[in-house]
C-alpha cells in the first residue's frame, strides 16, 4: 500500500509540473501575441487616428459690436478643415463670457476660443494663418479688425474715408475706384464723405495737409490696424502727425490734376499699359505684383511669353496667413502673415496654362486660385 501511495504522489507531482509548465507556456504565448499585435496595429491605429479630421469645440465671445469683424466666417472656415463637435456663443457680460475672458486673457472682441484636438498637425498651418495663439491647451483667435477693445471700450478699425474730388476735371480718374481697392484690404468703412476741391471743406483739407494733387482719398487714423495697407501706403501717400493717411501720388490710378500748376497729368502710355495688363511685349524680365486675401488673388490671371524670366512679388493684403505658388512648376513662396510680402522668380520654359494658388489648408478650396498663361 505504501508503495502504491508513493507512486500516486509521484504521479500527482508530475501532473502538477506539467500543468504549471503548460500554464507558463500559455502566458508566454499570450504575452508574445499581445506584443506582436500591438507592434503591428499601433502604427496603423496611429495613422488612422491622424488621418481623421480633428474634433474641436468652437466658442465665440462677443459683445455684438456693430461693424466688428464677423467671427462666424472663421468658424465656417474651420468647418472645412475639422469636425466641429460643438459651438456656442456668449456675451462678454455673461458669467460664462467673463470667465473665458479672464481665463484666456482676451483683450479684444469678438474672440474665438477653440478647444479639443487643436494640436493635430493638420491644423498647425490653420492656426498660423489665423494668427491664433495657444493658451491653456486652447487656441485663441482675436484682434482681427474691426474689433472692440476691452481696455478702452472703443471699436478699433472702423475707418472714415474722405474722397477729395475735382468736378472740373472731366478727364480725371474716377476716385470711386478706391472703394474697390480698400475692400481688397478688408477695411471696415464707418463713414464716407466726398468734398470737391472748390468747397470750403475741400480747401481746408488742401491747406491743412498741403495737398498738391486730386482726386485723392484720405483715411482716418484707425487705418493703422490694417497692417497690409500700412505696408504699401508709403508708395502712394503719407501718414500725418494726427494719424490721417493722405494719398499723395494718384498716378497709379489714372489721369489727375496737379493743383499747384493746374496741369492735367496723364500717365505715359507705357505706364498705363503696364498698370492695366501687367504685361509688355517680349522682354528679358516680366515683373508682377499679386495681392492675396481671403480668398482671392488680384490680378487673378497673368500672361508671359515662353522664355521670359518671371518675377512675382506676392503681397498678403488679407487678415490671415497666405502664400503663392505654382505647383506644376515647383514654385512656392513662404507662407506670410498679413502685411508681409515675398518674391519668387523663375524662367517660363514651357508653354501652357498653369494654375497658381494658396496652399494653406482650405484656401484653394475657398477660391484662392488664379492662372498663369505662357504663350
Concise description?
This protein is of the alpha+beta class. The protein contains 8 helices and 25 strands.
Describe this structure in words.
The protein is of the alpha+beta class and 375 residues long. The chain has three domains: 55-149, Glutaredoxin (3-Layer(aba) Sandwich); 157-265, Glutaredoxin, CATH 3.40.30; 278-374, Immunoglobulin-like (Sandwich), CATH 2.60.40. It has helices at residues 2-51, 72-78, 95-103, 121-130, 177-184, 200-209, 227-232, 269-277; strands spanning 55-62, 83-91, 108-109, 111-116, 133-135, 138-141, 147-149, 154-156, 158-165, 188-196, 213-214, 216-219, 237-239, 245-247, 256-258, 264-265, 285-293, 296-298, 301-304, 309-316, 325-326, 331-332, 341-347, 352-357, 369-374. The strands form seven sheets. A five-stranded mixed sheet has the order 2-1-4-6-5, sandwiched between helices. A hairpin with a 2-residue loop joins strand 5 and strand 6. It is flat.
